[in-house]
Design goal:
Blueprint lengths: L1 H10 L3 E6 L3 E7 L5 E8 L3 E3 L2 E3 L2 H23 L8 E6 L5 E3 L18 H11 L8 H10 L10 E3 L1 H10 L3 E3 H4 L14 H13 L6 H4 L2 E3 L10 H7 L15 E2 H8 L7 E6 L3 E6 L12 E4 L5 E7 L4 H16 L6 H12 L9 E4 L16 E4 L7 H26 L6 E5 L9 H9 L3 E4 L5 H15 L6 H9 L5 E4 L3 H16 L1 H10 L16
Parallel strand pairs: 1-6, 6-11, 9-10, 12-18, 18-19
Antiparallel strand pairs: 1-2, 2-3, 4-5, 7-8, 12-13, 13-15, 14-15, 16-17, 19-20
Helix pairs in contact: 3-4, 10-15, 11-12, 12-13, 13-14, 13-17, 14-17
C-alpha cells in the first residue's frame, strides 16, 4: 500500500485540501481512492481587538506555509518520497465574516470573523427588508453595519470576500467563491446559482438611504458550484504556500468553500433529508431540505450545499471552547498531584464520567458563551456555571451539564426546524472534536434532537479532507455526474458508521435540562450586563474586601 501511495504521490495523482479552521490550519493529501496519504497542521487562535474577533493576514500565510511544510514532511516520513507536486488543490475556511479590500488589494479594516455579533441593527433591518433571516456573521450584515456606523472605509471598497475567497484569490488571481460559502455572504436566488438580484437592488437602496452609494453586485465574488473549474495556481500563489519551491504553478483549483460546505462533503450529507452536526469552536447543524420552509425564522439560516441545493443551518457561535477550558483546568490539577495525563486522557476520563451523571444534570446549569450568541439574543458572552443549593456537586453530573450546555443552543434551533417546520431527517452525522470520545457526546446529541446520530471514520480528517474531495471531484468527474452521486458511488462505498439511537431516559433528561436552561437565560444576560470584559485580575489591582 505504501508503494502504491508513493507511486501516486510521485505521479501527481493526488489532491491537496487546505482548511483554515477556527483553531487549526490543516492540510490533507489524498490519493486516487480518496484515502488520506499525509496530513500537516498548524495551531492558531483568534484575537479580540477593539472588541472584535480577528486574525491577522500575516498569520494566515505563516500558518498555511507551516501546514504545507508539515504535510511535505509527513509524506517523506510515511512514504519515503519527496512531494514534488499535486494534481488538484482546494481551499476552505471558516465561513462568512468580512474582508474588504480597496482597488489596490489593500485590506481596509481588520478581518471581522464569523464570531462577531456587533451587527444587530443591520441584521434587524436587512432581515425585515429582504424577507429572509440575515445572520449576524454574514458578510452583508457586516457591510451594512459599517454603512450604518458611517465607517470611512465603505466608500473605498472594491471587493468583498470571505477568508476562503481571499486565500483562493491570492493563489489564483480569481475573485470567485463556492456557492455554499457565497450563500453566507448574500442570499442565493432559489433554483439558481447566483445572488438574488431583487435583494441586491434593495440593498443598494438601503445603503443609499444611509448615505453610501454602493453597487453590491460589483463588490461580491463570482459564484461557482462544485465541479466547476475555478482557476489555476500561479507562480506567486505557489510561493505563498511553499517558499521552498517544490509546489509548481498550474495546479487546477476547485471553487473555495466554507467549512460548513466541506463538512457536508466530509460526512456525505449533501442529499435531501440528510444532515450533519459539526462541533468545534462553534457548533452547527446543516440539514439539506426537500422543500422550502414556510417562513423565515431568526434561528435558521438558508444557505446551500456546494452543489447549490438548499440547506437550513442552525449556527451557534459557542461550541466546545468552554469544555476545553474546564478540561485544561482538570489537567492542571492532575499535574499538581504529580499525575502525568495528556489532554486526550483528560478528555476521555471527563467525558466518560458524564455517562454516570444525573440524567438532567442534577440541578446544575452552565452557559458556554465565550462570545455573543444570536439564537439567544446575546451580543456578548460570559461563561457561567451555577447550581442550586441542594444540587450535589459530583463529577459525572458536572461534566454532563457542560456537555448538555454545548448542545443546548443547537437544540433551540433544531426545535424550530423539526417541530415548527416538520423537517424530517433520514440520517444525521456528527463530527468534530466533541465526538472523539466514543459513545458520549454522540449519545447526548441523539437525546438533544431525538434523532439517531451516526459517527464514523469517514470524517476523521474533517473539512480539509472534504475540500480535497471537492478538488478531486472538479479535476476528475464525468460531466454528467453530480456531487451526491460522486460521493455515494465513488467516495463512501466502504464507509463504516456507528449509530446511536436516542435513549428515552436521556431524551427526558435533556428536556428537563432545557427547561432549566431557558429559564436561566436572564442570569446569563445579567452576567453580560454586570461583568465587564478585561476586569483587573492581579492581586494588586483587586479591591480588598472590607
Amino acid at each position: 500500500m505504501t508503494t502504491d501511495a508513493a507511486t501516486a504521490i510521485t505521479a501527481g495523482r493526488t489532491a491537496l485540501g487546505i482548511e483554515l479552521g477556527s483553531t487549526r490550519i490543516k492540510a490533507v493529501l489524498i490519493g486516487p481512492d480518496h484515502a488520506p496519504l499525509a496530513v500537516g497542521s498548524h495551531d492558531w487562535e483568534n484575537q479580540l481587538v477593539d472588541r472584535l474577533w480577528t486574525y491577522s493576514l500575516d498569520t494566515v500565510w505563516s500558518g498555511l506555509q507551516r501546514s504545507v511544510a508539515a504535510l511535505a514532511e509527513d509524506v517523506r516520513r510515511r512514504h519515503g518520497v519527496e512531494l514534488a507536486g499535486v494534481g488538484a488543490l482546494g481551499v476552505s475556511a471558516m465561513m462568512h465574516g468580512y474582508l474588504a479590500f480597496d482597488a489596490d488589494g489593500g485590506l481596509l479594516t481588520p478581518f471581522r470573523t464569523w464570531r462577531n455579533t456587533n451587527t444587530g441593527r443591520a441584521v434587524e433591518r436587512l432581515s425585515a427588508e429582504l424577507g429572509q433571516n440575515i445572520p449576524h456573521r454574514w458578510s452583508v450584515a457586516h457591510l451594512y453595519q459599517a454603512v450604518l456606523d458611517g465607517e470611512e472605509h465603505v466608500g473605498r471598497i472594491d471587493h468583498l470576500t470571505t477568508l476562503a475567497g481571499y486565500v483562493h484569490w491570492q493563489l489564483t488571481g480569481r475573485k470567485v467563491l463556492g456557492i455554499g460559502d457565497a450563500s453566507g455572504m448574500f442570499p442565493i436566488a432559489a433554483g439558481t446559482a447566483g445572488y438574488d438580484t431583487a435583494m441586491l437592488a434593495r440593498f443598494d437602496q438601503l445603503a443609499a438611504e444611509a448615505g453610501a452609494e454602493l453597487e453590491l453586485a460589483a463588490l461580491l465574488p463570482a459564484v461557482a458550484v462544485a465541479g466547476e473549474p475555478a482557476g489555476t495556481l500561479t507562480e506567486a500563489g505557489a510561493r505563498l504556500l511553499d517558499p521552498t519551491g517544490w509546489l509548481q504553478p498550474g495546479v487546477p483549483l476547485c471553487p473555495p468553500e466554507g467549512d460548513a460546505g466541506t463538512g457536508m462533503v466530509a460526512t456525505n450529507s449533501v442529499a435531501p433529508r440528510t444532515g450533519n452536526v459539526s462541533a468545534g469552536t462553534s457548533i452547527f447543524a446543516m440539514v439539506v431540505l426537500e422543500r422550502e420552509l414556510s417562513r423565515a425564522h431568526r434561528e435558521l439560516d438558508l444557505v446551500t450545499t456546494p452543489a447549490g441545493d438548499p440547506v437550513a443551518m442552525v449556527h451557534c457561535n459557542n461550541g466546545a471552547s468552554e469544555l476545553d477550558a474546564w478540561a485544561g483546568l482538570f489537567g492542571q490539577f492532575a499535574r499538581a498531584l504529580g499525575a502525568e495525563a495528556d489532554s486526550a486522557t483528560v478528555f476521555r476520563t471527563l467525558f466518560t464520567a458524564a455517562l454516570d451523571g444525573a440524567g438532567d444534570g442534577g440541578g446544575m446549569l452552565a452557559y458556554n458563551y465565550l462570545s455573543g450568541e444570536p439564537i439567544t439574543k446575546l451580543e456578548e458572552g460570559r461563561p457561567l456555571f451555577l447550581r442550586s443549593p441542594d444540587s450535589p456537586l459530583d463529577l459525572g453530573s458536572f461534566m454532563r451539564t457542560h456537555l448538555y450546555s454545548s448542545l443546548a443552543t443547537l437544540r433551540i434551533g433544531m426545535d424550530v426546524l423539526q417541530k415548527a417546520e416538520g423537517v424530517r431527517l433520514d440520517r444525521m452525522f456528527a463530527h468534530g472534536g466533541l465526538f472523539k470520545t466514543e459513545g458520549v457526546a454522540q449519545r447526548f446529541l441523539a437525546a438533544a434532537i431525538d434523532t439517531p446520530v451516526s459517527v464514523g471514520d469517514v470524517a476523521a480528517e474533517g473539512g480539509a479532507w472534504g475540500i480535497a474531495v471537492l478538488a478531486a471531484f472538479a479535476a476528475g468527474r464525468s460531466p454528467e455526474q453530480g456531487l451526491a452521486d460522486y460521493l455515494d458511488g465513488t467516495v463512501f462505498t466502504d464507509a463504516s458508521l456507528q449509530t446511536a439511537e436516542p435513549d428515552p431516559a436521556d431524551v427526558a433528561g435533556f428536556d428537563a435540562f432545557m427547561q432549566r436552561y431557558l429559564a436561566g437565560l436572564p442570569v446569563e444576560r445579567a452576567a453580560v450586563e454586570h461583568v465587564a470584559v478585561g476586569a483587573p485580575t492581579t492581586p494588586e489591582s483587586q479591591e480588598q474586601p472590607a
